[in-house]
Design a protein that fits this description.
Order of helices and strands: EEEHEHEEHHHHHH
Largest sheet: 4 strands, mixed
Number of helices: 8
CATH superfamily of the largest domain: Glutaredoxin
Structural class: alpha+beta
CATH architecture of the largest domain: 3-Layer(aba) Sandwich
Number of strands: 6
Helix content: 25-40%
Distance between the termini: 14 Å
Radius of gyration: 19 Å
Length: 293
């Protein structure tokens, strides 16, 4: 994995610091919010009003975090309001690329070959990682946000008066429970799945696999009496969990193939299939890209 350091791409790095020893942020750095009237949101700067055809979303089908944003775009009926580009599933030394391939889109903003070129165009001296999802403002030529959880929240509400539907996946009455699930069980489950799949330490993998299957047992039990995570109401938490579940048997399970598959869990399998078939969500899932990666 590479990153930009003072606007120059580095294919690899030994530590997240530049040549002067300054630490380079490796998380999401663009934390502005689109709002109905363009006023500042919870973080970042204002000036990003919810308007049709103003914003462009960069995603990759292989990335579960980008998938979150793509799902909310679909659920809220934003396809005609927010354009999208899908990156190639095979990342090269220079990161996310728009090299032509099946179900890969070109970059309509700069005609860039790589996503890092967009970051360079926005900030010539940018230092940090280049990630999907990236939400871009075509009007101001700025990156609005590259934090998936915040993009989901924006898409859920701010375009309601600009043409989105009125479905709400973060209802006020359930916000505390949704946040608890997101910050606890769902984050832990996603971390366990990633570590169990990709760690090179056998002892660590064994521990993470154990944690992962304990979580699956807990989820199976929860879904015995619940249609969704919080009863009969479908929420943001379900979709944040779905992006890992839909990848489980293809991406994660091959790394510990002596364990049960997701399809071996009656309730989890039912739940995952229902979400997959819900209101066009299957169109946001690309199994071929997952397998190629």
């Amino acid at each position: 994995m590479g990153l930009l350091v003072n606007g120059k791409w580095q294919d690899e790095w030994d530590s997240p610091a530049d040549q002067d020893g300054r630490m380079i942020p490796t998380g999401s750095q663009f934390r502005n919010w689109i709002t109905p009237d363009g006023s500042p949101g919870p973080s970042g700067e204002g000036g990003y009003k919810a308007e049709p055809n103003r914003y462009h979303l960069y995603v990759a089908y292989i990335c579960p975090f980008a998938h979150r944003a793509l799902i909310m775009r679909k659920l809220k009926g934003l396809e005609d309001l927010i354009s999208v580009s899908v990156a190639n599933p095979i990342r090269e030394d220079k990161g996310w690329t728009f090299e032509p391939g099946e179900d890969v889109d070109n970059d309509p903003v700069l005609g860039a070959d790589y996503l890092y070129e967009l970051y360079n165009d926005v900030s010539a001296n940018y230092s940090g990682t280049v990630t999907v999802p990236t939400l871009y403002d075509k009007k101001q030529n700025k990156i609005v946000n590259n934090e998936s959880s915040e993009i989901m929240r924006m898409f859920n509400t701010v375009f309601d008066e600009a043409g989105a539907n009125d479905a709400d996946y973060y209802p006020e009455a359930l916000q505390a429970e949704i946040d608890e699930l997101n910050d606890g069980f769902i984050n832990d489950f996603q971390a366990n799945a990633y570590k169990a799949s990709f760690t090179e330490e056998p002892d660590v993998q064994k521990e993470e696999i154990n944690n992962l299957y304990q979580a699956l047992d807990e989820l199976e039990s929860r879904l015995e009496s619940n249609r969704y995570l919080l009863g009969d109401q479908l929420t943001e938490a379900d979709w944040r969990l779905f992006v890992t579940l839909i990848r489980f048997d293809i991406v994660h399970h091959p790394h510990f193939s002596d364990q049960k598959k997701l399809t071996d869990y009656k309730n989890i399998d039912r739940y995952t299939q229902e979400l997959y078939n819900y209101n066009g969500i299957s169109e946001t899932v690309n199994f071929d890209h997952m397998k190629k990666n």
